[in-house]
Amino acid sequence: MFVTGLKYVFSSFFASFLQCGFRHLHPVDHPDSAVEPGEKVFIVTPTRPNMDGNRKWVPGFEAVLLILLSHTAVALEVPLDLPQPPTITLQSPKDYIFDPRENIVIHCEAKGKPQPSFSWTRNGSHFDVEKDSKVLMKPGSGTLVIDISQEKAEAYEGTYQCTAHNEHGTAVSNNIIIRQSRSPLWSKERNEAIVVQMGVSLVLQCRPPAGLPPPVIFWMDNNFQRLPLDKRVSQALNGDLYFSNVLPEDTRSDYICYARFPHTQTIQQKQPISVTVLDMETINATVAALYNITDFYSGECSPEGERRPGFMLPLGTTSTQMVLRGETLELECIADGLPTPDISWQKDGGELPSSRTSFHNFKKTLKISDVNEADGGAYRCTATNNLGTVHHIIKVTVNAAPFWVSAPRNLILAPNETGILTCRVSGEPKPQISWFVNGVPIENAPEDHSRKVDDDTVILSSVQSGSSAVYQCNASNAFGYLMANAFVSVLAEPPRVLTPPNRVYQVITNSPALLHCASFGSPIPTITWFKDSQISIKNSDPYVIHEDGTLEIHVAQPLNSGKYTCIATNNLGIKENHVFLEVKEPTRILKQPEYKVVQRGLSAVFECKVKHDPSLVPTMTWLKDKGELPDDERFEVDTDSLIIKDVTDEDEGTYTCIMNTTLDQDSASAMLTVVEATPTPAIVYEKPDSPADLELTDQTERTVQLTWTPGDEHNSPTQKFLIQYEDLLHEPGVWINLTEVAGTSTTAQLNLSPYVYYSFRVRALNNVGYSEPSQPSRQYRTNPAAPDENPSDVHGVGLEPGNLVISWTPLTGFQSNGPGLEYKVQWRQKDIEENWSSKNVANVSQFVVSGTPTYVPYEIKVQALNDYGSGPDPEVVIGYSGEDLPLSAPDSVRVMVHSSTLAEVHWEPVAFPSVRGKLQGYKKQKLSKKGRQPQEEQVLSFSGNRSEGRLPGLQPYSVYSLFVKVLNSKGEGPPSPSKTFETPEGVPEQPSFLNVVNHGMDSLTLEWGPPTNNNGRLAGYTLKYQPGINYTSELGPVKVMTFLANETTITLGNLNASMLYKFYLSARTIKGPGPDITQEASTAMDTSESYPTVETGKGKEDWKKEMVNGSHSHMIKGLKPGMSYRVRVVAKDAADPTVHSTDEVLVTVPAVPSRQVDIATQGWFIGLMCAIALLILVLLIVCFIKRNKGGKYPVKEKEDAHQDPEIQPMKEDDGTFGEYSDTEDHKPLKGSRTPSNGTVRRDESDDSLVDYGEGGDGQFNEDGSFIGQYSGKKEKDTHEGNESSEAPSPVNAMNSFV
């Protein structure tokens, strides 16, 4: 922020200053600091509009003088290359409550030229930082870091003050009171059981121990559930629990009051209170017993039925309360009665401030935020039920700690000039003002004849070089104090122009233009402007020269284009700067698209011809119903038209052409209606004519009434009227929809915004479309006002360590409500800082806070303000300062190998401060080595704060190297030390191939290849084979052969000719055999030329075939008695497709004599079959039970010896290892049917490490185990799911409520 100012010479009141002059400075936000010389700037919004039709809104001399006498300027910034006294830029809040578990950090930052040195006082005495080894002062600043990890924190409590000093002066910080947060234990007490009559009132006292800061109170039961509160049962501000009347359901033994201490995050619990509610009948029967057990409690004496309200809190009819200005006033009234009374509030002799008033605790608590003096007075709370009403009056007194009316600001004075420091404060009672110079009371400072102190004002006359100093103003009363530093720097500096040279400003005709000339110098430079280096510009129409040197042209015209020169002059020199203004023609649509009625299947053409400034590059965009055009080749966009071919019903809608340039835009719309190809004759419907005779009446600050005369409707009734407005001040040429009224209305009451030059027009709508706009109304200008809203989308995100970027969506010129739009950006560290830091910035969209701690939460507010006031109180948004890379790596990395394919890694999580950001999780990288050949590096990521994870899909018999990193949003931390582990041997994969190469009459030759992955030391191969029987699904006996690891071929002899064999080959290691690879092959036929087939059939279409298998005879079974069949034998050579067939033979099956009895129908036969079936079922059950109890194949004994979990399937119910299950492939022979009890079981595993990573790489549970299951059914480890079964944490449960 750079400075300029005004110099005034007074003729009477300050006559003594005539010779030396008088200066009052104020800063101007420099709008050009991020723009390079010669860069173009597009002006979009003005800052000094016309406020009425007769004159410009420009403050006169009297108004500026009044501001000078009643207000000081805002903060003054001096270029850092110039000598200047120290300025405190950052300091800790006045009341600093620290957590004894963390270091104490007391901030004190300052700037100056030369760089200031720092010192501290504690409790009024010098604090020698160097003598205390636990105290560190950060280099280049005065910030103290006190290590209290091994010290008593109480030793560092006290009042601290920082001093920043250089050769030009001394600045001091506020008194910073350092106190330790405390959470004392609850005093031991014994709560007597309470027995109370139904309907009476009751108070359960909490009375928590006093903490620093005070605790948060809430009531819960033994199950950590919040006790329900309502109009009858409520919690007072002091934490006590009030019952307006008790009911039987209030009986319980676990009324527990909890106190949560915010800084230490500890929770203290009061002993449970037992309450028993009895009705009158029970009391009469048991009163004697009750008196023997405990005291009998009753709020009233035997209440019967309903009763009038009475106040439980506060007592009596009146009470008093004091509140400080700016704080929140909390008034509370709790009443008893039956039925439960209703509470209402009012202020005697005034209204409750609606914008700052809120009701809580079922209207029993009244809160008024941001209290001011007008909020003092009598507040009446009223309790009402159907039996009566009772009142209580609370008399509120508003006092005020000192607050600034005008704080002293820095002064830059030239030698022999005069300046004024003002320190204007207010408060109740009235604050006492004290002045200091360089930290010393002004009455004890060296005498300076040029200095005169008059209460809240210091007048410096005819200052000389070398008299620079820092002045402190301290204002205090019984409720607090304010202290501000303001330096006086005596400089002789020639002018500087801070605006980059040769900047080009571009605006549209009739828009405002702002040409900047930010400057600095001492004495303050005088700014003059010239056009085209010749014409001197005066402060009159069409130009306005602002105090900061900015030249404004309210309504720029083409003749205003050209070169502008600003000259900054003082008695030490002169400096000039050149900028250029280009006034462009506005973009206008000359020929708008027109309403189209097009037959289905034909083409529609919309024209949109545009005129624009030739130096601007236009962009044409077409929209359909405010969205993008359909992605359809039927839509063709030309330079000035849109063509829609082969129109369909879906093409109906509103089409809009938009012409954009870098400075402005224009748009127009038309509707497309699709009709039948041969429409029947109908009445001609057209758009209505434009409304006419627009008139404005009943004009106020925020409303105006618009009337008009409708146009011809053209056979289609008017549905509605659309009122549009043009803002000639902020967006000339752009018409915006304001409101709609019914088609039967001819007037509209319009709500307006401040600081807008309105022009209205009206459009009528019928079934055909909108009419052309009416002629614009006369211009109506609204007066400026404070903003009605604040910026939206406020965010706080740190983009790099040590900063916080606060961003927002700025208000538009229309929303600004007045000139001089700025934003007040406020921030403070959440739960750490009490006072808000703030900065007023120009109309920008972000502000960067530097010097923040790494990744801490901040409360953020952004408020809009202009020359007429501030916007509403902004909402608080939580943001986080910038993250940094993690500092440390996980410790104690351990790997536990569970099997040849699964391992588990454990580590010690890093300390939270070393994460320096939001913990995203942990990342594991491993590099596998199989033999001596390194494999690809693999990565697993695990989200959340965890200490273990699983490594599935490992390769058996391999060596792995692993390390772990911590992740945050900024990136990865350093890796942990590498950890190497090995996986044991496993079963090998199946052989790579199995081929039958030679088919003999009684022999077959087999060849195979070794497995792709041995997964261990290969011990050999196992070959099983068995013959098929008559080419059916039945298989013969199994023969087994074993081979050494180096054998890969075998010739099997003594086989049956013309026999189909099935082979099963598996590789094996010491862990056992791997999966089988299967193959089928047949020996050669005994007659090498044919494979005979017997065919039977009753007709040509019903032939059935049976294989003869090389024999010379065959029995055909299953023929029906009394039927005739044709039989033939068919042979086919394997190498010749020719089919050889015998002649057909007719065979007749004899019929069964009628006296013959079918055995299948005999009862004895049916009974015998049932008995056999039952016996078989019992036998199967016995076998099944025996098998489950320990029946094992021989291979099971080997597995028991090795105990390899890799080949032990896990039971589904308890996760333990079950019995061996034979997974041999029993796939049926080709062409055969699958037996009813035959299954094909898949043994191959589809596991891979990629399947188990996060995101696309897989998912993992919270404990690191994988969620993604194997392709076959997998079993969870028994320890999975512990997190869900863990007992609930009381602290977590209670924190969730507070």
Automatic annotation (TrEMBL):
Keywords assigned by UniProt?
Cell adhesion, Cell membrane, Cell projection, Disulfide bond, Glycoprotein, Immunoglobulin domain, Membrane, Repeat, Signal, Transmembrane, Transmembrane helix
Region (Disordered) spans which residues?
Answer: 771-791, 925-947, 1193-1298
Q: In its UniProt record, which GO terms are filed under biological process? A: axon guidance; brain development
Q: Where is the composition biased (Basic and acidic residues)?
A: 1194-1214, 1272-1282
Q: Which GO terms describe its molecular function?
A: cell-cell adhesion mediator activity
Compositional bias of type Polar residues: which residue ranges? 771-782, 936-946, 1284-1298
Instruction: Check the record and name the CDD domains matching this protein.
Output: FN3 (cd00063)
Major location category of this protein:
membrane
What does the record say about its membrane topology? Single-pass type I membrane protein
Task: Provide one Gene Ontology cellular component.
Answer: cell surface
**PROSITE patterns xref list:** FN3, IG_LIKE
All copies of the Ig-like domain together span 86-173, 184-274, 309-397, 402-489, 495-582, 586-673
Q: Which SMART domains has this protein been placed in?
A: FN3 (SM00060), IG (SM00409), IGc2 (SM00408)
Under the heading Gene3D superfamilies, the entry gives: Immunoglobulins
As for subcellular location, the record says: Cell membrane; Cell projection, Growth cone
Write down the superkingdom of origin: Eukaryota
- Residues in domain Fibronectin type-III? 690-785, 787-884, 889-986, 990-1090
Q: How does it assemble?
A: Interacts with SHTN1; the interaction occurs in axonal growth cones. Interacts with isoform 2 of BSG.
Q: Which family does it belong to?
A: Belongs to the immunoglobulin superfamily. L1/neurofascin/NgCAM family.
Q: What functional role does this protein have?
A: Neural cell adhesion molecule involved in the dynamics of cell adhesion and in the generation of transmembrane signals at tyrosine kinase receptors. During brain development, critical in multiple processes, including neuronal migration, axonal growth and fasciculation, and synaptogenesis. In the mature brain, plays a role in the dynamics of neuronal structure and function, including synaptic plasticity.
Q: What is this protein called?
A: Neural cell adhesion molecule L1
